[in-house]
Write a structure and sequence with these properties.
about 280 residues; alpha+beta; six-stranded mixed sheet; four-stranded antiparallel sheet
């Protein structure tokens, strides 16, 4: 279903506010909503929020046989789902355009950027590897679901622990968490997605972390996926108004600051969760 267009008074009011560098939720044009992270008892289960946008990410692992062309690497698959609960704009059983976009971007950001060491998922070369499946459920759409889903996905991988494995001859023994403490994934870097929205009038400055109404009224969006070490993984601008190179570089510098803040926030929340639970075998 095509989302309803904002009314003319809404459109005029938002545009007039943006010309004065004002936003309906009181933020500055380069202010992002404060993210929230909630962890469940099960490792690898994370609920992330950007304002009223809510996303749940869940990682599960199983042992499988690797493809013959990559016998020394584990397998990572990513699946996203936007249910009608997120918004009336989405229909059940039929993937929307935004759902496809989120899945493709998560695949580029989390899998193709080699954020997770796939070789560390190999148990027996050519015979047994770990298959990690990340499932992202979008519960509420209040704008910028991509950034929220990306944050939830990388934190879910960071929070997840795979069972300890022992290989004796040809036998592979998978120990339960009660016998041996689970092992964290080998993660090379933590990419975060930062999205900007652009508007048709040049007097309106780009906004960071657009709300749902700003998203619908925008004339284009640019998403930058990068880590705290200033390494860009993905830069996507799907159509919309043209942007000069200097403006892109300026926004990338802003995205670096956001990524560094997110990196500190994620490490702090993961440490708090680790201290609140016992995953070691006494």
């Amino acid at each position: 279903m095509r989302p309803p267009s904002p009314s003319i008074p809404e459109k005029e009011f938002v545009y007039e506010a943006l010309k004065q560098s004002l936003r309906l939720d009181g933020r500055n044009h380069l202010d992002a909503r404060t993210p929230t992270l909630d962890f469940r008892q099960e490792l690898g289960w994370v609920e992330c929020g950007y304002g009223k946008t809510r996303v749940i990410a869940h990682v599960e692992a199983k042992m499988t046989k690797p493809p013959p062309e990559r016998p020394l690497e584990g397998i990572i698959t990513i699946h996203s789902e936007i249910s009608p609960m997120a918004s009336v704009d989405y229909e059940p059983g039929r993937p929307s355009e935004e759902e496809v976009t989120i899945t493709r971007m998560l695949d580029k950001i989390l899998r193709r950027s080699d954020a997770i060491d796939k070789e560390s998922l190999c148990v027996v070369a050519g015979q047994r590897v770990w298959h990690l499946r990340l499932t992202v459920h979008c519960l509420a759409d209040a704008g910028n679901m991509l950034d929220c889903a990306c944050l939830a996905g990388i934190v879910a991988f960071k929070h997840f622990r795979k069972p300890e494995v022992e290989v004796i001859g040809d036998e592979v023994i998978v120990h339960s968490p009660l016998e041996r403490s689970p092992v964290p994934l080998a993660i090379h870097h933590m990419p975060f997605c930062v999205t900007f929205a652009f508007f048709p009038d040049p007097s309106m400055r780009p906004v960071l972390d657009p709300s749902l109404l700003e998203q619908r009224l925008s004339a284009g969006q640019m998403s930058v996926a990068l880590n705290a070490q200033r390494e860009i993984c993905v830069l996507q601008k799907a159509g919309g108004v043209p942007i000069v190179a200097e403006e892109i570089l300026r926004l990338v510098d802003i995205a670096v600051t956001v990524a560094k803040d997110l990196d500190k926030f994620v490490e702090k929340r993961l440490q708090e969760d680790l201290e609140s639970r016992k995953i070691e075998v006494m």
